[in-house]
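re the bet — no i am not wrong, look at it urself. input seq straight from the record:
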Amino acid sequence: MTETTGTWEDPGRHEDAYRPAPARERTFAALAPVSGGAFARTWWGLAWLKALADSALDGQQVKQGRRHARAGAVGAVSVRPGRITAVVQDRDGTRHRCDVLLQELDGADWDRFLDLVADRAGHIAALLDHDMPPHLVEDAAAAGVELLPGIGDLEAECGCGAWDHCAHTAALCHQVARLLDEDPFVLLLMRGRGERELLEELQGRTASRAREAAEEWASSGQAAEPVEANGIPAAEAYAARDILPPLPAPPPYVDEPGAAPALGGGTDPAPGVEVAALEFLISDTAARAQRLLADALSPGHADTRPQAPLTCAQDAVRLAAAGPEPRIAARLAAGSGRTAKGLALAVQAWEYGGVPALAVLEEEWTPEPAALARATAQLAAWDEDEPPPRLRHDRNRWTVIGADAQLRYGRDGRWWPYRKERGQWTPAGPAAEDPAAALAALRGGTEDSAASP
């Protein structure tokens, strides 16, 4: 199927014909003859043929027209707003110009239709994919816009002199059904809008609505109401990429987080509200926002894997690691289900390795056989110049016999050194890939502690 496009203007038609430049006529080359099978495959192509059957008074003429179309008797088809035209040749070689007319949508109809499509990304995606889903037509009909023709909507004009649908106009309608199968924009052009013109108007409406929503939100000074994030299929989002407004420019880099406001005032806080705690949280939020922005603007951000969100208990440790005043630390301990001493121990682990270090402190687990065999092999591969320590194994923990030293095996396959202090196992350093290295760092820390005054 080939086509050419041109500009068609008819002063007697809809006022939109006076717009400059839009392609308002498409001409499709004559289609090859076909044998057998239905003329339309899509539901909208079948609806077009049903409108023909409902409009024609003589069913025999419709059947004769179908035979003409199958035989390739229909020449090039010209499609423009309100009209389709072609020359159809009889078996005896006589040629007849025939036209089929379809009422154009007026300006108000097009406004309603474009608003409807702009409101739903799925409708935009369907049109871009040259699809006309039933719900699009149903939604348009509910808004008072009839896209597909109905009974009596297809008017016929033919050079043979027939006053109703003849074999020639019926042949043209059957050929148009084949064109509609390939491109539903043929129907929309008959209704008054070409593909490029329609998509440009949709893009303008989508961009305008985005700007209006942003301006309204900014002028209200209020947070936007939460919207249920159902999302749309990825294929629809990808298909709509060419008519969606461009993304805004990235925000500028911020060197330092802003200063937290002072919340003191003449009104006493509500019971249970700690002003100092709120100020602390505001400062922390500003600092995190600055770090997230710097990370987002960094060159390798697109390749960074997103991290799992912290649990409330983990976030309490993160906050406590910032060194808040004792009253706030006590609230964090109580809120996370820890004692003050337990929170201090968790902070110590956090400072050595974040979430993995905290998990090693608070979780005791049994490695799978494969992980246990790997850990055992690592422990056996000790430096020959130094005798291996005698270890007592309990789940994921190996304790050095005769010393206050312990190695803990993390779920990530790394080794974490621990030292017993005042009867409690305490994190003693960052993780190491090799148990010997972790134990050496532990011994080094012990020697350094002994040597210090």
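see?? DSSP finds 15 helices and eleven strands in the chain. told u. also The CA atoms of residues 22 and 196 lie 7 Å apart. so pay up
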